[in-house]
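Exercise 7. Predict the structure of Lipoprotein from Halarcobacter bivalviorum.
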Amino acid sequence: MLNKIVFLLLITVFFNSCAKNAPDLPKDYSSVNSNEEIRETDFEKELLILSCDEIIIQIKELNTFNEKNIDKINSTRTQNQAIGYASTILFPPLWFAIETHSETKDKIDEVYKQKDILYKLQKYKSCN
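Solution. The predicted structure, encoded as tokens:
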């Protein structure tokens, strides 16, 4: 009985160690009690020359890019869940067959950072 408990505990720790932390939130520039100000020096020179319409276009392109990456992750979700259940109950080494999409998730995180910068630029330029 003790061996089963230890085994289940080890499996639980293993699964939890594979989870990815959420990216850090950007600084707060827009709330009522914000202490941060947006400055021109917060942006690269090539971003400052963008018009409001160009910023919107870039945000839409980033959204499209992210949608494709999210679809890629979702396409293997059911398979990964089945493998996860089977590896927990039947054969733990099956866990290594799960597609983690680490690179895709990193790309998504990077796109979110780029979008945060563009949203901040919209606010700085007073785009509506």
